[in-house]
Amino acid sequence: MSSATAIAGAVEACFHCGLAVPPGSSYSVVIDGADRPMCCPGCRAVATAIIDQGLDDYYRHREGHGVNPEALSPSSAEESRSFDDEEIQRGFTRCDPDGIKRATLSIEGISCAACAWLIERQLRRRPGVIDVSVHLGSHRAQLAWDPTIAKLSELLTAVTEVGYVAHPFQPDREEQYARDQQRRMLRRLGVAGLGMMQVMMYAVGLYAGSLQGIDDRHRLLLHWVSLIVTTPVVFYAASPFFTNALRDLRSRQLGMDVPVAIAIGGAYLASVGAMWRGAGEVYFDSVCMFTFFLLLGRYLEARMRRHSDEFSRRLLRGAPRTARRLGPTGEEVVACRLLVPGDWIRVREGETIPADGIIVEGRSAVDEALLTGEPLPHARLPGDPVIGGSQNIESPLVISVTRTGASSTLASIVALLDRAQAERPATVRAADRAARIFVAVVLSLTAAVTFYWWHVQPDRAFEIGLALLVSTCPCALSLATPAALAAATNGLARTGLLVSRGHVLEGLARISDFVFDKTGTLTRGELELVAIRPLGEESEIECVAIARALEEHSSHPIARAFSRWNGPWVRRENESQSEQKIVCSEANTVTGSGLSGRIRGVEYRLGRADWALSLIPGSSAPSFDEADCAVLLVAEHGPVAWFGLRDELRPGAAKLIERLRRRGVRTHLLTGDPSPGATRVAHRLGIEEARGGVSPEEKLAYVRDLQASGAVIAMAGDGVNDAPVLAAAQISIAMGGGSDLTRARADSVLLEDDLDALGGAVNWSHKTRRVIRQNLAWALVYNLTILPLAGMGWVAPYAAAIGMSLSSLLVVGNALRLGDVRVSK
Amino acid sequence: MSILFVLIPLGLALLGLAIWGFIWAVNNDQFEDLDQAAHSILFDDDPVAPEAPDRPGDESS
Q1: What value does the mean pLDDT take over residues A376-392?
Q2: Which of A128, A146, A170 is the last residue in one of the domains?
Q3: Residue A626 gets which letter from DSSP?
Q4: CB distance from B46 to chain A under 8 Å?
Q5: Within this chain, do residues A228 and A110 fall inside the same structural domain, yes or no?
């Protein structure tokens, strides 16, 4: 047994979170009359709370496992208490006149409707809670409570009890705006739809009347009611077309909205004029139908965008960020934006460092993975600089703030990102340009045809012009793409890739190069124990047990690797019993080196080889190079074992690279991690180009060079350091676990663990492109056929409107085929 | 056919009602979450007290 890789044995899965139950643990909860295994005290506590509250329905209806409570990041008790503070609450609550407070909470850990139910139920039975509704799609909850009875911190704790974490959330203005916009569109769509149904009904009467004969007074009645119903449709529902058309004309551009506004406005005015004169045709039905279908297309498109925007933002912790400032009166919690250079702040272990600064006191490990892409935390000592946004892992630090706000490191990366985004190649604009040309052609054609008829047969000129405008309306054309994209986007969201900008789907089919980040993108960004080589008499299992006992006192990523490990255990009762008794005393963390402690009276050290070996002067250990990162366990009497750790690849990574290669897409790896492990990963996967230790600027330059040679680039990344490159690439994909900034700015977010979902997306985008082409071809053929017919005056406006609608329906129906992604697999 | 002069305005009134209802629904977030409602029917409104006799014996120690 020289080395062992983690082969998943027949391990039991935790009933609550689905993770493997570590050997030797004996946690369980009785659910539905049977003993269910639990992996850790956290899960047991949550499951017990759920059962005790009579909420066991959750387990019956949930669609997947819950989230392990350890994977969540609850606010510290102190931070929660600060949410009760009036001053801090003002940032995220609204207060009704009767004293009821309302807040939006962002909730971590929701995965299905059962979760939403569980949270609602748990909160609703708390005294003082007036109302709560959990929105599954956005992972938010609206909470209304009576502050005289309940405290917000207690309610947040109640959510934590059942295994979720709630943070107060401040919806940003952009989001609020998107929400209002969406509602306005929906109201307009409803008015247009209902109006259309009515007016069409009246129109049937009118058409039947013109065939069979109709009383003048009846016709007049139908005209009048049509007018009454159409008026709000034109002035309310269709108003955006007019404002957009005006805006376009003012900026001397031709958008799709110009002919639309002319057609709607012209037809409406002409119909009113015909009624006034008591002669001529009315086109109210065409007006309503036209408006409705156009609004429907826009609505579908907007909903798709908002849906995914919400998704990508829902993980943003909009909670007011606070810092502990050390003032003359002691420690005080203040909002981060109030910090100024020179302030001293305390950052506890596990907290995010709020601003750039220099360590004054304390030594700790700082995780900068999201900022630099380096997977392992750095040891930081007094006098060392730290970057705002990184995480303090080991022990409390006192930091003197050097830079805040716009001058901080984080802000400078954001600035780089903004610039990259503004200079992005304009592949997206092509569709708009095509539409503009089309519109110009349609308008001039209509003018010419109307002019011609004006001379030949003046009384029919308007009718024919209108028919031409309506029938050539780029309706099918304008629905063709958004409908296909909306359907495909919904389908992809189900496989785990969330698309927030429509061009991703079209674009993925055209890419020539795919650039990956390493840490957190190709790899999981978490260390895993992959090799154990015992050096003494202890078995592998004993070695791990000792290491685990030591690491229990640390929150370093290496420690997490040990606690997660569940290798090829042989579950023997006595063994698991004895193992449980291992307890480490006098545990001590030596920053940058490792851990020391005493187990059964023997002193152990676990960490960097040279430091661990210095426990026994003059000793040495055989060399070991089986993994990217190795730690040595040494006892008083000699070296005990080597442990090899590796940042494991995400599942599907190899398959994705293979798929891309078969499609002829070149692959690149750019990582901030300078270690040779970076390039080793590239080799293992068969990635063609790999660069390690590159800065955000260098990444950006690399991508720009590729683009200069004509490459169309898709980039996948997770860290803040990837954000500028993501913005520069034609298509950007952020990882679900990545930084807030990256997710918010990327074109799409991968929520799945499985990277191969991207491969599926590439396939899907080829299919989407095919459907869009079919749709456009149909729209074009239809328009080209109807154009001469309408131009010759053979198409009545109502027939044009029906033709246009049928054509649109066909296009939408074709697009809906894209909703079922399973076909692509 | 004079009945049309009554029926059509009546239809208009109903239409007005429908539009009002729709706008009310939009303003009250009825269209915000279309997935949750489909599932909520699965859950009992009030958790029923566990029926003791039906529980399989004392498997739990």
Answers
A1: 82
A2: A170
A3: S
A4: no
A5: no
